[in-house]
Amino acid sequence: MFDYEVVLKQLQSVNNPNSIHGIFPYRGKISAIDARNMIDQFPKGICLLDPFCGSGTIVAEAQEVGIRAIGVDNNPIAITISKAKTMSSKFFDANHADLMVRKAMRVGEEEVEEMADWPRKHFHPKTATQIMRLKQFFSEMNDFEKGAFFGAIALSARGCNHYKWSSNQIGTIQYPLREIDFFGKFHDKVNKNSPHLLADTDSEIHQHDTRGLSEIIPANSVDVVYTSPPYFDALDYTSYYTKFVYEIMAKHERSDIKKGLIQKFSTYKDDMKVVMLEIKNVLKPGGKAIFVVGDKKTKDGVINGGEFFTELVDWEPDYVKQRGYTGSSSQIWDNVNNTDRKEQVIVWTKH
Ligand SMILES: C[S@@+](CC[C@H](N)C(=O)[O-])C[C@H]1O[C@@H](n2cnc3c(N)ncnc32)[C@H](O)[C@@H]1O
Q1: Do 296 and 235 belong to one domain?
Q2: Within this chain, do residues 40 and 168 fall inside the same structural domain, yes or no?
Q3: Is residue 56 part of a domain?
Q4: Which ligand 1 atom lies nearest to the CA of residue 21?
Q5: What total number of domains does the chain contain?
Q6: How far is the CA of 280 from the centre of ligand 1 (A)?
Q7: What is the position in ligand 1's atom list of the atom closest to the CA of 271?
Q8: By C-alpha distance, which of 146, 118, 121 is closest to 134?
Q9: Distance in Å, CA 237 to ligand 1 centroid
Q10: Which of 42, 92, 118, 267 sits a CA distance of 20 to 30 A from 156?
Q11: How far is the C-alpha of 181 from the C-alpha of 159, rounded, in Å?
C-alpha cells in the first residue's frame, strides 16, 4: 500500500469555515483539516473505508481529492448528514429547496403537528411552528436538503437561545427565547453549503453496525481504513443537537439507536475486539488501518489510547504517533477529558 510513516501536523486551527462540514454540528466530528492532511498522504486510486464515519468528514474529504470512499455508521442522523455532504451537485436544485419552503408556508394552521415537549421548550413558538411545517415535506427532500434541514434545526436551537450555546454543546434555556426565522436558516444552510457539493461522486454511505462489517463489505476489498472510532463511554452520539433532531422527527427511539452503538465502558473492549477483527477481514493484504484516538482520563489515571489499542488484539501496530495540541484543539476530547489532550494515531498493516 504505502510503506512510509504518516506525518502528523501540529494543528493551530481545526475548522475549515469554507467547507461543507459546518452543515451540522455532529458530536465528535473529526477536524476536517486534520483529515485532509492525512488523506493527502494516501496514494490515489485506493478504496478508503471509514467504519465509524459519523457526519462523513473523512468520506467527504477523500471524495474531494478523488479517492473512492465508503462510510459506515449505525446512527441514522450521522447517515443523513454523510449523505447530504456527499450528494452529487447534479441532484441539487435551488428551486426545489425554495419549493419545499413555499409548500411549508401554505400548510394550514390546524394541520401543523405539535412539536414534542422536550425540543419545544427550547424554541420560540413561531420558530417551532416553522420547523414543524417544513418537516411535513421531509420525505420529498433530497439527501442534501435533509441535511440542511437538520442543520437548520441545530442552528435555530442556538439562535432561539441567543447563541449562548457552543457549536457542539447545548446549555440551559435562555429566556426569553428569541424568534428565529427557521425558513431563513434553512435557506442559509442550503446556500452556504451547496456550492461545496461535487458533481462526480462515487462515495457509498451505509447504515450498519460495524461489529458486523463483513456483512456489507467484502473481505479483502479495502486498501485503507481511516477512522476516529467511538471512544469508551465518553460520548453519546444521540445527544445535544442530534437529540433535537431525533425528538422532532419522532421516528426513532433514541434508546433503540443507542443499543446499536458502542458507547458503554463495560462492553467497550469486547466490542472493539470484534471491530478490529472485522476491519482486518475487509482489508486487502498489505492494506492499512489508521485509528485516530486519544488520552482518556479516568478516576484511576489517564489511559493512553495508543497503548490501549496496541494491547487490545493480537495485531501488532506498525507504529503509534502522538501529538499534543497548541492554540486550538479538535472538538473530540477537550470538554470530556478536561486535561491537556494528547492524541494518538495508530497504524496497522494486514500482513
Ligand atoms: C468519533 S465519532 C466519528 C465522527 C466522524 N469522524 C465525524 O467526523 O463526524 C464515532 C462514530 O461511531 C459511531 N458508532 C458507534 N458505534 C457504532 C457501531 N456499533 N456501528 C457503527 N457506528 C458506530 C457513532 O455513531 C459515531 O458517529
Answers
A1: yes
A2: no
A3: yes
A4: 8
A5: 2
A6: 18
A7: 19
A8: 146
A9: 7
A10: 92
A11: 9
